[in-house]
Amino acid sequence: MEGYITRIQRELHIADSQTDIPVSAAIGYAWTSEKEKNLEKLLHEADEAMYENKKELKKER
């Protein structure tokens, strides 16, 4: 999964460098290996990860 995220971030960085309009996206995901999957919990964890990524992006600007 990390590889996908890295590739997306790289492409966003390229797009951002080619325009005077800022291009960015906060990305969050959650993963579980549990047999019983709790979708609500996974969505919450992914959402939390996205907001953490968003905070980091704001620090960089």
Describe the structure.
The chain has 61 residues and is mainly alpha-helical. 62% of the residues lie in helices and 0% in strands. It is built from two helices and no strands. The chain is elongated and about 45 Å long. The two termini are 25 Å apart. The model has no long low-confidence stretch (mean pLDDT 88).
Number-wise, the strands total 0
Residue windows where pLDDT falls under 50 for at least 5 positions: none
- Largest sheet data: none
Integer average pLDDT:
88
What is the distance, rounded to the nearest whole angstrom, between the alpha carbons of the first and last residues?
25 Å
Radius of gyration: 14 Å
Briefly characterize the structure.
With 61 residues, the protein is mostly helical.
Task: Give the key terms.
single chain, 61 residues, mainly alpha
